[in-house]
TrEMBL record:
It comes from Urochloa decumbens. This is Leucine-rich repeat-containing N-terminal plant-type domain-containing protein. It is found in: Cell membrane; Membrane. Pfam families: LRR_1 (PF00560), LRR_14 (PF23598), LRR_8 (PF13855), LRRNT_2 (PF08263). The lineage of its organism: Eukaryota, Viridiplantae, Streptophyta, Embryophyta, Tracheophyta. One of its GO terms (cellular component) is plasma membrane.
């Protein structure tokens, strides 16, 4: 019966124990005489792979059974059961509670499953219970709190869950409590503080939360307190400084905060202090230097700041000092390793803000491992570095060291790891490096080192990894490189190496990764490459290697990554297809020929197949459809023909499909719309026909769509507007017709739009002016577009090139184009544009505007003075024509009326002068002297017309002209 209360008086516990026995009468009625039967029940419950139960039989004395201990001088009184480490499996039976005389049970390090039997709480004589390192499940039975004599309880490294039962606080004789490496949760019970005899409390690797309870101060005898790898928080409790017997304190990888307790300096017997991986702040307390017995100090991965204040002159026993991943600054203190008494063997200071020289570290003569990487140390690597003669690991990477690698480095005969990458080192690799016979890892990458790779490097026969990436080494790869029989990684990429790949490299038969890319290597691959049976990754791209591949490469069955791009290899691909484990095959820009072998599809885990820029011919193998994990397929710029095989529709993870620059035919398949991971689709420069399938609009992640230079027809499907992630749309050089769909406005991440050399018609959609990211080009040239240039194009403020040439666009150039301040190429030639070029566009060459007969103004010839030179829109022309018609009608009426009046006056004058010639001669005189002035004096509309003429208006000119003609007619 489970005890649920947190604590009970002893009498209540006794009553519950009695009730427990009543419920389990068969167990409680057990006596010392029943031990053999109980043990046989245990035997029947367990599987015994090693036969340790073979001697367990009723006929034999139980005290002679393997793993059984009996009380001396007594018969059948079993006091010990030890079956540790025999691979036993099965469930511990409840009957084990019948071993009433047992004092020690050890079933550790087996494969036991099921729960811990609560019946173990009946074993009142039990002192030691060891069930650790099994696969036990369930919770920790509270009944274990009934074991008053229990001294050692170790049940960790199981699959136990739930909380730590507070009832364990009743096991007042407990000295060791080990519950590490389970799945326990909740908080640390305060009741554990009642365990005054407790010496070891180990709760590592659970998911415990909360603070360390103050009641734990009652465990005054603690020697080991380990609660690492939980989720405990709060400050480190000050009472820990009162545990005078404490030898090991491990609070690593929790969420403790605040400063490091100065009181820890009072723990004179402390040998191990681990506070790594918390959120501790502040400085390192000086008091820690009082811990004269301390051997391990790990304060790494916190937020500790200030100077490095540790002195091994006081911490004479210190062997491990780990302060990596903090905020320490300043220089290395001179007294870190003062004198010859320092026993410091391992110093880890990486990932701080320390600077200056590392000269002070040369006093730490016992050092075996030194890691000061990821700091700001400067200066040269001291030539006296060989004072650290015992160094095995030296890590100085990610600093600002300069100068050359001193030849004295060759004196560190024990060195196994030399890591100097990402500094400012210059000069050559000293040949003395060849004396490092134990060297396994040599990392010099990302420096400025030069010279040749010394041949002596081949004497470092223990080398496993060599990385010289990103330096300036020149010359050839050492001919004796084959001496490095243990070499697994050779990284020489991005240098200036030349010459052939040495044939001896084939003798490095442990080689797994070979990177010789980005050099100037030449010649053919040696036949010995076929001996590199362990080779998995080989990258040779960006060299001048040539010739057909050796047939021996087909023997390399472990290849996973091959990148031979940008070389001059020729011949067949078949030698590279011996492995069925290829994940990457990149051979772009070589001269490989023949067909694409169907054997490529044997590597079902292929993710990248790049064969572009070769001389491959024939059809695309349908077998490529078996490469269902393919994310990139690049077959561009070859001589491939035929259709796109439908089997490629099974490659549903394709992100890049590049088939451009071939002679492929047929239609663009609609199943491309099912490739929902597609980010790049380039089918340009082929001979595809038919419509653009609307289904492409389903490729919602498409960034680039290029179908240019084909024979595609029909209209641009508006479904392309659903490609809202599209950056590049290129449909140039096809036979597309119809209008440009306004739905392209939805592609608001477009920065390149090319629709030229088609038969598109209708107006330019104003919506194109609302593509905010359009930057590289908007090219609508060589179509049949008409209407005006939309003023909205002025909204394309990032646009660098605009080409609307060779269309049927009319009207004026909109002034809004002056907003395109990033524009450096403009072509509006070959249209029907009219009017003046906006002054802000005059900096573009005349060719930008040629072929528009009614355009004028810089850079074209000047516009005529008359404003009539301006070509007016159709609506304005209609209004003006109507106005002229109305005015003309009015003028005609006025002229008719004037002529009638003039005729009437002339008749009157003629009649009055008909009796004498003098009057007639006088009229002629006036006429000669004043022209038509005689008629200006007549109060007629003509005189008014003469007055209007002086105003200079167009209407007055018309009236005056007509009146003069009338007067002339009258005189005649």
């Amino acid at each position: 019966m489970a005890i649920k209360q947190s604590s009970f008086p002893l009498r209540v516990l006794a009553d519950l124990s009695l009730l427990f026995c009543i419920l389990l009468a068969p167990v409680c009625s057990a006596t010392t005489a029943t031990a053999p039967a109980t043990l046989l029940q245990l035997k029947s419950s367990l599987t015994d792979p090693e036969g340790v139960f073979s001697g367990w039989s009723p006929e034999a004395d139980v005290c002679s059974w393997h793993g059984i201990t009996c009380q001396p001088g007594e018969v059948d009184i079993v006091t010990g059961l030890n079956l540790s480490g025999y691979g036993l499996s099965g469930v511990i039976p409840p009957a084990i509670g019948g071993l009433i005389s047992v004092e020690s049970i050890d079933l550790s390090s087996n494969s036991l499953t099921g729960p811990i039997p609560p019946e173990l709480g009946l074993l009142e004589n039990l002192r030691t219970l060891l069930l650790f390192s099994n696969s036990l499940t369930g919770t920790i039975p509270p009944e274990l709190g009934l074991l008053k004599n229990l001294e050692i309880l170790r049940i960790g490294d199981n699959r136990l869950h739930g909380e730590i039962p507070p009832h364990l606080g009743n096991c007042t004789e407990l000295e060791t409590l080990g519950l590490a490496y389970c799945q326990l949760n909740g908080s640390i019970p305060a009741e554990l503080g009642k365990l005054s005899h407790l010496q070891q409390l180990v709760l590592d690797n659970n998911t415990l939360i909360g603070n360390i309870p103050e009641q734990l101060a009652g465990c005054a005898s603690l020697r080991v307190l380990s609660v690492a790898d939980n989720m405990l928080q709060g400050n480190i409790p000050s009472f820990i400084g009162s545990f005078s017997d404490l030898q090991s304190l491990n609070l690593a990888n929790n969420q403790f905060s605040g400063g490091i307790l100065a009181e820890i300096g009072n723990l004179s017997g402390l040998t191990y202090l681990n506070l790594l991986g918390n959120g501790l702040t502040g400085t390192i307390p000086e008091e820690l230097n009082q811990l004269s017995q301390l051997q391990v100090l790990d304060l790494s991965m916190n937020n500790i700041s200030g100077n490095l204040s540790i002195s091994t002159a006081q911490l004479k026993s210190l062997k491990y000092l780990v302060l990596s991943g903090n905020l320490l600054d300043g220089a290395i203190p001179e007294d870190l390793c003062a004198g010859d008494s320092s026993s410091l063997e391992n110093l880890f200071l990486s990932g701080n803000n320390l600077g200056g020289s590392i000269e002070a570290l040369l006093n730490c003569g016992a050092l075996r491992s030194l890691d000061v990487s990821n700091n700001s140390f400067t200066g040269a690597i001291p030539p006296s570095i060989d004072r650290l003669s015992g160094l095995v690991n030296l890590a100085l990477h990610n600093n600002s060291f300069t100068g050359s690698l001193p030849p004295q480095i060759g004196n560190l005969s024990n060195l196994e790891i030399l890591s100097l990458f990402h500094n400012g080192l210059t000069g050559k690799i000293p040949p003395e490096i060849g004396r490092l016979q134990k060297l396994k890892l040599l990392f010099l990458y990302e420096n400025q080192m030069a010279g040749t790779i010394p041949d002596e490097l081949a004497d470092c026969t223990s080398l496993e990894e060599v990385d010289f990436f990103g330096n300036h080494f020149h010359g050839s790869i050492p001919e004796r490189i084959g001496n490095l029989k243990n070499l697994a990684v050779l990284q020489l990429r991005q240098n200036d190496l030349s010459g052939p790949i040495p044939a001896s490299l084939g003798e490095c038969q442990s080689l797994q990764a070979l990177a010789l890319a980005d050099n100037r290597l030449s010649g053919a691959l040696p036949e010995t490459f076929g001996q590199l049976a362990e080779l998995s990754v080989v990258t040779l791209y960006n060299n001048s290697l040539e010739g057909p591949l050796p047939e021996s490469l087909f023997q390399l069955k472990n290849l996973t990554v091959i990148n031979f791009s940008h070389n001059r290899f020729s011949g067949s691909l078949v030698p590279l297809l011996g492995s069925s484990s290829l994940a990457v095959l990149a051979l772009t820009n070589n001269s490989f020929s023949g067909v694409i072998p169907a054997a490529v599809a044997r590597s079902r885990n292929m993710v990248r197949l790049q064969l572009g820029g070769n001389r491959l011919a024939g059809a695309i193998p349908a077998e490529l459809g078996n490469l269902t994990r393919l994310t990139m397929l690049d077959l561009s710029f070859n001589n491939l023909s035929g259709d796109i095989p439908a089997e490629l529709s099974r490659c549903t993870q394709l992100a890049h499909l590049k088939l451009d620059g071939n002679r492929l035919t047929g239609s663009v398949p609609s199943w491309l719309g099912e490739l929902r991971s597609l980010g790049e689709l380039d089918l340009s420069s082929n001979a595809f026909t038919g419509d653009i399938p609307a289904e492409i609009g389903n490729c919602s992640g498409l960034l680039k769509l290029s179908l240019s230079d084909n024979h595609l027809s029909g209209s641009i499907p508006p479904e392309i507007g659903r490609l809202t992630s599209l950056n590049v749309l290129n449909l140039n050089k096809n036979d597309l017709s119809g209008a440009i769909p306004a739905a392209l406005r939805q592609c608001d991440k477009l920065y390149e739009l090319r629709l030229s050399e088609n038969a598109l018609e209708g107006p330019i959609p104003p919506e194109l002016g609302k593509l905010p990211e359009l930057q590289v080009i908007l090219d609508l040239s060589r179509n049949k577009l008409s209407g005006e240039i939309p003023a909205s194009l002025g909204g394309l403020v990032k646009l660098e090139r605009l080409n609307l040439s060779s269309n049927r666009l009319d009207g004026q150039i909109p002034p809004s184009l002056l907003k395109l301040t990033s524009l450096h190429l403009l072509n509006l030639s070959g249209n029907l544009l009219a009017g003046a070029v906006p002054a802000g566009l005059s900096g573009f060459p005349a060719a930008s505007f040629e072929g528009n007969s009614e355009l004028c103004g810089a850079p074209l010839p000047r516009c005529a003075p008359s404003s009539s030179a301006r070509r007016l829109p159709g609506t304005e022309v209609a209004v003006i024509v109507a106005g002229i018609a109305v005015v003309s009608a009015a003028v005609c009426v006025a002229l008719l009326y004037t002529m009638l009046r003039v005729w009437s006056n002339w008749r009157a004058v003629s009649v009055s002068n008909s009796d004498g010639e003098e009057s007639a001669h006088g009229a002629g005189k006036w006429a000669a002297a004043a022209g038509d002035g005689k008629y200006w004096k007549v109060g007629s509309p003509v005189s008014a017309a003469g007055e209007k003429h002086s105003s200079g208006s167009e209407t007055s000119v018309l009236h005056a002209g007509k009146s003069t003609e009338a007067a002339g007619a009258a005189k005649s």
